[in-house]
Amino acid sequence: MASTISITCPECDKQLKASSDLLGKKIRCKGCGATFAARAPGGKSAADEEEAKPKGKPGKPGDKKPAAKAKPSAVSDDEDNNPYGMTEEYLGRRCPDCAEALDDEQVLCLNCGYNTLTRERSRTRKVRDITGMDIFLHLLPGILCALGVLGLIGFDLWFIFQITPESFGDVWYDFIGSKALKIWISIIVLFIVSLLSRFAVRRLVFHYMPAEVEEKMEHKPK
Predict the structure, then answer these.
(1) CA dist., res. 200 & res. 147, Å (int)
(2) Are 18 and 4 in contact (CB under 8 A)?
(3) How confident is the model at residue 145 (pLDDT cuts 50, 70, 90)?
(4) pLDDT digits (tens, 9 = 90+) for 14-42
(5) How many CA atoms lie within 13 A of 55 on its CB side?
(6) Which of 28, 29, 31, 42 could disulfide-pair with 9, CB 3.0 to 4.6 Å?
(7) DSSP string computed for 179-218
(8) Domain extents for the chain?
(9) Percent share of the chain, pLDDT over 70
């Protein structure tokens, strides 16, 4: 089993820890970036011993081809052994929706559109244009209620002043012209008029514009 040895960089004298299997191979220093052959402390590398041997003439039988150079391998020190360590620490405000960093006085997140005051996220809406027909159809119930109010008031006044018991003659339903019935009909008419007039005022005065109609957005393929 390979053991761990300490290797000193000849350029910056930094101590690197590496496996003993890397002896004689080219490695790169993490501190200064220099490339050198790995050597044991106080000893020579296998590459130095190979260079010290006399080389045979090319073409003769029995000559061995020089070994291919190994690719340089980066040896990391103790600080790089933990790839999940903290690289940046931020203690300021963050967006509650996407955790994006926010300034101290920033209200709207520029990343997701979240508003920190209203606690709502902005979104893109597509609304249809309001036409004259839309406005007319929106005001039509209020107009009908106003006409109904005028009609009921006119009917009540006509019934009070024009209808009498003598208008029907000597019949069983001559009680229609009595004062008691006129009072009850007037109360009912006034109650209905109050409801219709309230709706007409709200529709024709305070809410005379129709609400926006949101349409479904179609996402075109890129």
Answers:
(1) 9
(2) yes
(3) very high
(4) 777 777 777 777 777 777 777 777 776 66
(5) 8
(6) 29
(7) HHHHHHHHHHHHHHHHHHHHHHHIIIIIS-SPPPEEEPPP
(8) 1-49+69-77, 88-123, 127-215
(9) 72
Mean pLDDT along residues 72-88: 53
Q: Could you tell me if 177 and 163 are in contact, meaning their C-beta atoms sit under 8 angstroms apart?
A: yes
- Name beta bridge partners: 121: 114
State both tokens at 87: 């690289």
* Among the listed residues 91, 110, 115, the one whose alpha carbon sits nearest the alpha carbon of residue 100: 110
Q: Which two tokens stand for residue 147?
A: 């006409």
Q: Residue 107 carries which side chain, given as an amino acid letter? A: V
d(CA 67, CA 26): 13
Q: How far apart are CA 103 and CA 197, in angstroms?
A: 52
Buried b (16+ CB within 10 A) or exposed e, 47-57: beeeeeeeeee
Distance CA 78, CA 6 (A): 12
* Cα dihedral across residues 199, 201, 206, 210: positive or negative: positive
Q: What share of the chain is helix, strand, coil (3-state, %, to 5)?
A: 35, 15, 50
User: Could you identify the residue written with the tokens 């006399």?
Assistant: 54
For residue 21, the SS3 value is helix
The pLDDT tens digits for 109-133 are 888 888 888 888 776 677 788 899 9
